[in-house]
Structure formats: structure tokens, C-alpha cells
Amino acid sequence: MISFEEIPEMDAELEKVNKHIERLCKSNSESMQKMMDWVLNARGKQIRPIMTLLCSKLKGKKVDATEVAAIIEMCHTASLIHDDVIDRADQRRGQLSVYKKFGPAMAVYAGDFMIFATLGRTNLRLKPWYRDMFAKLEIMSDGEVRQFDNQFNTNITEEMCIENIIGKTSAMFSIACGAGAYEGRCTRREKAAVEKFAEYFGLLFQLRDDLMDFIATDEESKKTIHNDFWTGYYTLPAIHTFNHPDYGEELKKIAVDLKNGVHEDGIDDRITELIRKAGGFVYSRDLIESYRDKAIECLDIFQESVAKSKLIELMDMLWDSVNALPLC
User: Are residues 215 and 178 in contact, defined by beta-carbon separation less than 8 angstroms?
Assistant: First the structure.
């Protein structure tokens, strides 16, 4: 992650975010508390809380956005718990998922508890961004359903793919950044610019993950390579290849065969080869770069500051990881 040496209060604020989360996750049920403790044991990189705090500092105001960041992180974590039930995911944030550790039913209850605790245990419910947060959570849910509706659809378009990402990934970043900007006394125009930055950041974030699903960079990642493609969730590199005049039909046939449980040894290598020959990886990288450039433009409305530079640095950290991938 990026360093916050230039913002000495950040470490203390992130610690306060976690204290809020621990308070909000207290349960009278021993079984529920075990699950909450398990979730809190692996907090991830906390990118969204970091973005909330940074956006609250863009105007140089001294504000406390830690509970705001905690609420948003809880909603995000709850959605991940539910996602793992749907995907039957074994791992989450370096440990067994709640689904794998406690079972699917208990995982659903754990995700529900985090959402309901967010609704009932905060004093921030009258904030304008609070209602907006749940409106964007609806958008996120719609995006997940659209993705599910297009499972095994080899005719999915790039436009549909981007729309799904804006719904299921960008929406949560938009919540995080928009709420931080509001707390930091940004104008409506500035808040809109921050939310647009977050939309592009979300696109970069998800398209990067989609690329990494195709390209194994170490022994551990080879265990899950092509997971999305095998399960019928076709991302941009594959969608681009489906439309290629020379390689599209073969990749579509492989997709249909996998849906029907038919495949040969070495099929993963062939999938990668087809997408690489069709330019699907390079095309995705170039689109990611365009979103990076647009995101930076969104922040031009703000004067130079450490908070602004750290938002760009956070985005460039993702961009650098894309550039490190062997795409050609």
C-alpha cells in the first residue's frame, strides 16, 4: 500500500475507523460474535476507508470522517460475505471465508447482521450522503444481478460489461469518495467530480482484477486462473476476443463446451493464447489507461494537496500492477 508519512494523522484515523467497526459489530449472540471476530481478524487493505478519509481532506478542512468510513466499509464487507456464499468461495482476505468457516446459512446471517447494525447503530442517519449510500447500494445490487443474468452469454457486449462494473464495483467507491467529500465541505460540483473520479477508479480496479484472472503471475494465482471464464462470467478480454473475426468463434465454442462440462487438457493455455492473439489483453490495458487519465482529470478541480496526490498515487499503484503483467 501507499505510505502516509506526509499525513501523520492517517494511521490514528484508520485505527479509529476500526474501533467504530468493532463497536458496530458487537453482538449478544456468541455464535454471531464468533463470526464478527473472524471477519474483523482479516480487514483487507481498507482501500475504501482510505479513500473516504483522503476525500474528506481535499479542501484542507479538519473533520472527523472515521465513522463515515466505518459504515461504508461494513456495507462493503457484508456484500463480500454474501458474494462468497453465491460463489462458494473458500478464501477471503487471506483466510477461510465466513461461508467456508461457518457454513452458507450462518454466512448469510453474518452479512445481514452487519447491514442491520449499520442501519441501526449510527447517529449519522440524517446525513445527506446516508440516503445516497443506500441508493448506490441498490445500484450495486442491480449490477450484480445483471452480471448473473449474463452468465454464459457469449454475446455480451463491451457496453454491457462496463455498465455492470459501474454498478457492482464503482458504486461502492463512489459512496466512499462522495461521503468523504461531503464531510470535507466540498461544493456540489466538487463532490460530483470526486464521484466521477471514483467511477473511473472502480473501472480501473475491476478491469485490473479481470486481467489478473487470466494471467497467472505466481504459483498461487495459477490455482484460480480463468475462474471467471470457467463459471460463465465473461470479462472484457474475453468479450473483445468473442468479436474477433479469426479467434472469436473458437473461444465461443470453448465457452459452450465448458458450460456443458466438456474440456480437454491444456484448455487454459489455449484460452490465454486466443485472447492474447486477438489483442484482448492489450485492449483491456489500453482502456484501463484511458480511465486512469480521465480519473486524474476529474481531480483537476482541486488545488494541489497531499490528499489529492495520495488519491492519484493509490490509483497509480493499481496501474503499475497492470503494467507489470505479461500481456503480449
Answer: no
pTM: 0.93
C-alpha cell at 115: 447491514
* Nine-digit cell string for 87: 460463489
pLDDT, mean of each 10-residue run, the chain (328 residues): 87 96 95 96 91 97 95 93 92 93 97 90 82 84 90 96 93 95 96 98 96 70 71 96 98 96 91 96 97 97 97 95 89
CA angle 249, 252, 255 (to 5 degrees): 155
- Characterize 188-221 residue by residue with b for buried, 16 or more Cβ atoms within 10 angstroms of its Cβ, and e for exposed: eebbebbbbbbbbbbbbbbbbebbbbbbbeeeee
Q: Concatenate the DSSP letters of all residues of 77-123 into one string.
A: HHHHHHHHHHHT-SEETTEE-HHHHH-HHHHHHHHHHHHHHHHHS-S
Cell readout for 125 is: 442517519
Residues 6+ apart with CB under 8 A from 122: 24, 67, 71
